[in-house]
Design goal:
Layout: H1 3-15, H2 18-21, H3 25-29, H4 39-44, E1 52-56, H5 59-62, H6 75-80, H7 98-111, E2 116-120, H8 123-126, H9 136-151, E3 155-161, H10 167-170, H11 179-195, E4 201-205, H12 208-217, H13 228-252, E5 257-258, E6 262-264, E7 267-269, H14 274-288, H15 290-297, H16 310-313, H17 319-323, E8 330-334, E9 338-342, E10 354-355, E11 358-359, E12 373-376, H18 393-405, E13 410-416, H19 435-453, E14 457-464, E15 483-486, E16 491-494, H20 496-507
Parallel strand pairs: 1-2, 1-14, 2-3, 3-4, 4-5, 6-8, 7-9, 8-13, 13-14
Antiparallel strand pairs: 9-12, 10-11, 15-16
The chain binds beta-D-glucopyranose.
Beta-D-glucopyranose (BGC) is lined by residues 58, 61, 206-207, 263, 333, 356-357, 415, 464, 471, 480.
């Protein structure tokens, strides 16, 4: 049995229904690229009427205008202005200049037949140092942006926090400081009060595990701390913050629905051993559903060997009541998968290197002494230019797993995409033939359609991203857009993938 077959078998056994649900497709696909989806399934795939086809962006990655209209400094401004932090020595001071070009970008989204636009609000535009009275110029900007979305038939999907913490709050201790939960809930309440007449879809945090772990656990992202205790404290503050924010949003806007934008990777045990299966369950608990379980059930899932290190987390009696704030719908991203093994008997622990959207543990070590697993991204399927393995079936496994575990919630796919560097081709009038990205979405979306056909209540898909943008510490060395951006003059050119995605959105099918 090769590893792929083994993974299928072990994941199927662990999850019960997976194998039964899986069709005979792998036998056909095995003669092709590993993980590839047969053409017949792509042709047959259909999406429901009224499905929200969308794209996603984040304020820091697209807006630019980094100190305009009273905006304060964010931790990402500080980080990108520090030499040695960003590949290519670029900053996001201008990025895609969407702060000024938003009307054009929303019109482009309409041209691609989009129905939903997931964007984020920059906290330091609203509260320059993180607390106190709102900066009306910042609120006015987002009010105009939301109007532009509505004029173009786009559902405004607001992420309240996509990583750009006001530096003033980092100076007060950052996310490990429990006070931030209250400041954050105030900020969320301000947004709901001023924009809640038009925004009804709110996601408090983008990828809470990632920014707390990368920022405080291993230091790959700002503020650059590498301390597992700080990560745990930050994570607990964020848990309290998402629940408090849900309450403050709903108090300010009766139309509000609140969900999430968690980063998730379906996890498969490295071997069939009980130890590896248990480690895989810990990975899922820590990386995928830590914050979801906390808000839905008022308790943390079993992410640790033994009891959660409550003291290290800064957990106080009564917190289980504060944490509980059931979501109206569940949103998550899918990019790639993980193979997980037990690290209970490993002596060395390290954070691992930074690869693409995620931290990979160094295979020689375990990640930390509490979760005691080792998680790696396999390289069996093809790799994108950003270095992530393409594994279309992962989205089927993830969606069906979350549906099962959380009693069939409404699901929003908040992000998925692939980094390829295709550029305008002069001999064809500057057209951008990014066929690998089209292939990525065709196969993945066929698997999403299969999950929907099998009963998952998925109502949206947001491609990352509407346009190429500032890829965090990787600067401009990665391009995820359906639209190409020339950073020299901000010219936008729709890639072939964008034209294709527009046809998909118009027809709810993939053979277009
Ligand atoms: C993040 C985006 C990022 C994308 C590609 C996602 O996980 O939310 O901000 O650009 O990955 O790396």
């Amino acid at each position: 049995m090769d590893r792929r077959n083994f993974i299928q078998v072990s994941a199927g056994a662990a999850a019960g229904a997976l194998l039964a649900a899986h069709r005979s497709s792998m036998a056909q696909a095995s003669s092709q690229v590993p993980g590839a989806i047969p053409e017949a399934e792509i042709k047959a795939a259909r999406f429901p009427e009224g499905f929200f086809w969308g794209t996603a962006t984040a304020a820091f990655q697209v807006e630019g205008a980094w100190k305009e209209d009273g905006k304060g400094e964010s931790i990402w401004d500080r980080f990108t202005h520090t030499p040695g932090k960003v590949k290519g020595a670029t900053t996001a001071d201008v990025a895609c200049d969407q702060y000024h070009l938003y009307a054009q970008d929303m019109a482009l989204a309409k041209r691609l037949n989009q129905k939903s636009y997931r964007f984020s609000i920059s906290w330091p535009r609203i509260q320059p140092s993180g607390t106190g009275a709102p900066n009306m110029k910042g609120l006015d900007h987002y009010s105009r942006l939301v109007d532009a979305m509505l004029e173009n038939g786009l559902r405004p999907f607001c992420t309240i926090y996509h990583w750009d913490l006001p530096q003033g709050l980092e100076d007060r201790g950052g996310w490990p400081n429990r006070d931030l939960a209250g400041y954050y809930a105030d900020y969320a309440g301000i947004l709901a009060k001023h924009l809640g007449d038009r925004i009804t879809i709110w996601a408090p945090f983008n990828m809470p595990w990632s920014f707390t772990y990368m920022g405080y656990g291993v230091g790959a992202f700002p503020p650059g701390r590498a301390n597992f205790g700080d990560f745990l404290k930050a994570a607990h503050t964020v848990t309290l913050a998402q629940a408090q924010a849900l309450r403050s949003i709903k108090a300010a806007s009766s139309k509000a629905t609140v969900g999430s934008a968690y980063g998730m990777c379906p996890a498969y045990p490295a071997t069939d051993s009980e130890a590896d299966r248990a480690a895989t369950a810990r990975y899922h608990a820590m990386n995928n559903v830590f914050f979801l379980e906390a808000t839905m059930k008022g308790r943390y899932p079993k992410a640790f060997v033994g009891d959660p290190p409550y003291e290290l987390m800064g957990f106080k009696p009564g917190d289980e009541k504060l944490m509980l704030a059931p979501l109206d719908w569940v949103g998550f991203h899918y990019y790639t998968r993980r193979i997980v093994s037990d690290a209970s008997h490993v002596q060395a622990f390290g954070g691992g290197g930074f690869a693409g959207t995620e931290i990979e543990a160094d295979p020689a070590t375990g990640r930390d002494p509490y979760t005691r697993f080792r998680a790696v991204m396999p390289t069996e399927g093809p790799l994108t230019e950003s270095g992530l393995e393409v594994w279309p079936r992962g989205i089927y496994d993830l969606v069906t797993q979350i549906s099962r575990e959380y009693d069939h919630p409404i699901i929003e796919i908040t992000e998925s995409g692939s980094g390829y560097l295709d550029a305008p081709y002069e001999k064809e009038n500057g057209r951008i033939p990014d066929t690998r990205r089209i292939e990525f979405f065709r196969e993945e979306l066929a698997e999403l359609a299969r999950a929907i056909a099998d009963g998952a209540r998925v109502r949206s898909f947001h491609a990352w991203s509407l346009l190429d943008n500032f890829e965090w510490a990787n600067g401009h060395t990665e391009r995820y857009g359906l639209i190409y951006v020339d950073y020299r003059d901000q010219k936008r050119t729709i890639k072939d993938s964008g034209l294709w995605y527009g046809r998909v959105a118009a027809s709810n099918r993939l053979d277009v």
